[in-house]
């Protein structure tokens, strides 16, 4: 099943998500459906709040960057109950977009490297360091389960300049090439 993507302005994107357990109903199907939804929307990451579920789970698919970086050719991961516990002081700027904020792209500064504990789709525990594009996508999706969106990282002046766009989006004035809901 392909889920509609929740659009900016919905309270669910601002709620902090809850941990889940291995007995979460139809979890394997949810993972499968989230990857279908992500593929349909042509994104690189999708968090459960973006499909209306306030659970601490997201998926990442860095395969679109596989041609320029062969290490990302098969990079599809599931993150359950993640916790970022360390971030590098070194940061970088990168233009980000979001399926929940269609048509909006802004340069966001984030740490280059992070360390994180998480469970995979089989609820096996991992403790890993991520760097580069995977680290960026993971941080973006992690924000969603914390009730944040990428525009929260913009400097106040820039946030003020896009305020009208965000307000229009929240009222339903946007275009997306995928199924959405407000």
What is the helical fraction, as a range of percent? 10-25%
Question: What is the succession of H and E elements?
Answer: EHEEEEEEEHHHE
* Low-pLDDT segments, ≥5 res: none
- Structural class estimated from helices and strands: alpha+beta
Strand order of the largest sheet: 2-3-4-7-8
Description:
There is one protein chain. The protein has 182 residues and is of the alpha+beta class. The protein has one domain: Alpha-Beta Complex (Peptide Deformylase). It is 24% helix and 27% strand. It has 4 helices and 9 strands. Strands 2-3-4-7-8 form a 5-stranded antiparallel beta sheet, with helices on both faces. Strands 1-9 form a two-stranded parallel ribbon. The protein has a two-stranded antiparallel ribbon with strand order 5-6. Strand 7 and strand 8 form a beta hairpin. The two termini are 19 Å apart. The mean pLDDT is 97.
């Amino acid at each position: 099943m392909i889920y509609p993507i929740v659009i900016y302005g919905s309270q669910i994107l601002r709620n902090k998500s809850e941990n889940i357990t291995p007995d979460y109903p139809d979890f394997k199907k949810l993972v499968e459906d989230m990857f279908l939804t992500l593929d349909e929307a042509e994104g690189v990451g999708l968090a459960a709040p973006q499909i209306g579920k306030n659970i601490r789970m997201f998926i990442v698919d860095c395969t679109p960057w596989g041609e320029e970086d062969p290490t990302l050719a098969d990079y599809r991961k599931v993150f359950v109950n993640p916790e970022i516990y360390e971030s590098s002081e070194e940061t970088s700027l990168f233009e980000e977009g979001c399926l929940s904020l269609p048509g909006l792209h802004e340069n966001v500064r984030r740490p280059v490297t992070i360390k994180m504990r998480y469970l995979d789709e089989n609820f096996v525990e991992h403790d890993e360091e991520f760097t580069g594009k995977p680290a960026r996508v993971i941080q973006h999706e992690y924000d969603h389960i914390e009730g944040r969106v990428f525009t929260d990282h913009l400097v106040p002046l820039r946030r003020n300049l896009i305020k009208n766009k965000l307000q229009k989006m929240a009222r339903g004035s946007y275009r997306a090439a995928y199924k959405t809901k407000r």
